[in-house]
Amino acid sequence: MKKIFFLSVIALALFSCKPASVANTQLNKGSQVGLKGSWSIAAVEYPGSEYIKVNSFQIADSKCFVGSTWKFISNNNKGEMALSSYDCPAFSSPITWYINKEGQMILKILNADEKAKKVRDGYILTVANQTENSFELVDKINVGGKMTEVIYKFRR
After folding, report:
1. All domains of the chain in start order, with CATH
2. What tens digit of pLDDT does each residue of 80-120 get?
3. Beta strands 37-45 and 55-56: pairing type?
4. Burial class (CB in 10 A: 0-12, 13-18, 19+), 1
5. Which pLDDT does position 47 carry in this prediction?
6. Residue 43: how many other CB atoms lie within 10 Å
7. What keywords would UniProt list here (predicted)?
8. Under-50 pLDDT residues of the chain
9. How many angstroms separate the CA atoms of 110 and 87, rounded?
């Protein structure tokens, strides 16, 4: 009887310890609804590090994202993005996204006809300075051992 009790306690302890997710899935519905619609990136900035070159979202140089168009659909957390700068590679893709209670946008860039659950890599960006007509997404990257912010400034 003691063995069964002991094994039950161990099993309960193992199954009750769920690892914490990096991306909290409790949604911030107010922020999500505020992003609903079409947006464009007006500027990309690296405060204090204007001379670095960043390959954003493993797609293209971050400066190629200036002028890119983004559409966020808040009721199903889908959307699309497209690069259209003449000096940069053309790129268009569906996206899936949500904003958690910590103010982080969890973003996945999908291939055509690919389901988000099949995509293992995504991006965790901080939503900042959100207004009716603008907001910023802040990414943190490692540059020479120092964490540097990349700020994507969106406008309607």
Report:
1. 21-155 (2.40.128.280)
2. 999 987 788 889 999 999 999 899 999 988 875 555 444 55
3. unpaired
4. exposed
5. 82
6. 14
7. Signal
8. 5-21, 116-118
9. 23
Q: Are 35 and 74 in contact (CB under 8 A)?
A: yes
Distance CA 85, CA 104 (A): 27
Q: Which residues of 64-122 form beta strands (DSSP E)? A: 69-73, 78-83, 91-99, 104-109
Percent of the chain with pLDDT strictly greater than 70: 76
What is the reported pLDDT for 32? 84
Structure tokens at 18: 């769920």
Distance CA 11, CA 26 (A): 28
CA–CA separation, 88 and 15 (whole Å): 49
Q: Report how far residue 8's alpha carbon sits from residue 18's, in angstroms, rounded to the nearest whole number.
A: 17
pLDDT of residue 3: 53
CA neighbor of 31 nearest in space, from 124, 118, 101, 107? 101
Name the DSSP class of 100.
B
Interatomic CA distance for residues 91 and 83, integer angstroms:
5
Amino acid of residue 115: K
What CA–CA distance (Å, rounded) separates 39 from 133? Answer: 9
